[in-house]
Design goal:
The structure holds two protein chains of two kinds. Chain A contains four helices and 39 strands. In chain A, strands 1-2-5-8-11-14-17-20-23-26-29-32-35-38 form a 14-stranded parallel sheet, with helices on one face. A 13-stranded parallel sheet of chain A has the order 3-6-9-12-15-18-21-24-27-30-33-36-39, with no helix packed on it. The radius of gyration of chain A is 27 Å and the shape is elongated. Chain A starts with 5 loop residues before the first helix and ends in a 20-residue tail after the last helix. Helix content of chain B is 84%, strand content 0%. The chains are: A mainly beta, B mainly alpha. At the A-B interface, helix 4 of A face helix 3, helix 7, helix 8, helix 9 and helix 10 of B.
Chain lengths: 416, 260
Amino acid sequence: MILNSPHHKFILWLVLFMFGPFVWAKTYTICQACEHSSVKETIQLADAHDTLLVQKGTYREFEILVDRPLVIKGIGYPIVDGEKKGEIFRIQSDNVTLDGLFVINVGVSYTKDNAAIRVIRSKNFIIQNMVLEQLFFGIYLEKSSHGKVYHNRIIGEAMDEYNSGNGIQLWYSSDIEVAKNHVQGTRDGIYLEFSDQITITDNVSRDNLRYGLHFMFSNHDVYTNNVFENNGAGVAVMFSKFITMKNNTFRKNWGTAAYGMLLKEINDAEIIGNTFEENTIGINIEGSNRIKYIDNDFIGNGWAIRVIGACYTNSFKGNNFLYNSFDISYNSKLNDNVFEGNFWSSYTGYDLDKDGIGDVPYRPVKLFSYVVNRTPETIILLRSLFMDIIDFSERVSPVFTPDDLKDAQPLMKIRP
Amino acid sequence: MLKILKYSFYDLIRSRWSYVYFLFYLALGFVLLFLNNDVSKAVITLMNVIIVLIPLIGTIFGVMYFYNSREFTELLLAQPIKRSSIFMGQYFGVAGSLTLSLVLGLGIPFLLYGLLRSNAIFDFSLLLVTGAFLTFIFVGLSFVIAISNENKIKGFGYAVLLWLFLAVVYDGLFLMSLIVFEEYPLDTFSLVATMLNPIDLSRILILLKLDISALLGYTGAIFREFFGTDLGFLVSMAILFLWTLFPILSLGYKAKRKDF
């Protein structure tokens, strides 16, 4: 009687539809003494939407092909040991979940990019709570989309660039969320190539050989709240458009070619609220246009910002420049960028009308930075009285530095 | 020697010069901290003061003291005391009292503003040690100048010139030569040239702590070896020590041979 009402019929169908897969899906338990003792073989037995529970133990397997939608979940971090023979997991199906496995010993190859986990042409995958060690490439996403790489720990022991791989690599992928991962000791911590609409949040990428984060030809990506520390060359963002970078921290990237952030051929990006601390170069900018630098903190860097050339219509507003050896360095006399309302710790002007804005413009480019650009050895004269005198006279009447490169409204108090 | 050292020391305190010097540093320390309210920032500003002012004050003070106490020196020379102990006593008396004023004058305000709780304590102690070294070096150099010149005006002139040369002109010449010879490898040259000037040497010693991130930006293997490791710190310290020894030895040498 009840079922006769079309309304109730609909609900019944809905319930069946929602719980159907769970009602019919099976759960396989894999352990060394069980009926199923191999991950690879159990996958072949399983039907779509089944769940594989991997019990604690060591599974010496490699080239595990996941070609149907499955949930593979480790209990108590079982070890999947590839014994350096090759790739370990290869996902070639939509709706796959990998959770809580300890994957070690990926085979190093000079012809193939072996990865601990490779995802190929798949959608809606979730890779979470994985621990990857002794790896070549960590998680390699290839032409995949709408997935999630969440809370993984990737620890490599890369020594040389030529025989090491990247922690998390995205290649021709889109709409993927990379969050709360910890990557260290790989070549590039997180590497994006031709990948759009990617969100990268709350990751820590440190002690990598080359870049903590590396963008190539990837547009409309957002990265927020990440920490990049002590990487060989910091973070590189190259040949990309419409990137948003917010509230990240770039620390202690020291060396001759180390940058907090390297921008090359970047257009229309937003760099907001980031902290650059104790890097040799905070931001190195080359051929980048229409970028907004707002509310960033530059603390104790060698060069806070180094502009190499061909950078137009960028604006720097409300940033704090604190105790950097050089605030801004330019290598040309041309300037098309706007500096407005920043706080400069070396500003010496006054504020007679007490509106919080200095009455005298601040010129952030020191003549000395030009001298250093030309003859790098002169860096040894940093902070000498002679250089201070020269800088002062240049500041009074600019000859070598761009005349219009100044902050006409420098803040008197540090932006909180 | 100790007796003469003590005498010179008390003489300076009685003549209030030590107090003036002490109060100057005290005021400087308080004003800097009051304006910045941040110990780390104040250390940077202080560095500029230390590498310029301390040599100047040391030079002027040393020359002045030597000429002023000339009569007393002659009186002492008539006594059966070793010449070296007379001059060394005076030298250590002056340099010691200046150093004490420096350390106390800057130390007290920084301690009051919570130096012990900040992580700038190592930078700050390095600053004071460098300051002490510079005092000893420049008082020594000025004593050597004063003992070699009977004429006070000439002596003062040379002393001020020495300061001007080491503090400003030397760096100018250094910079010029770096730019003129920029085609050549200059790593070793620039490091050696730095070592030859105690003011530059102290500056580098402090930079090693404050601006290390900038110094590492240059692509030279020798630079990297020098700045990137503890080597730079140890070598600079050792050479600074040699620099202190040099005027003391030449003062002893001059004093022994001078005919009063």
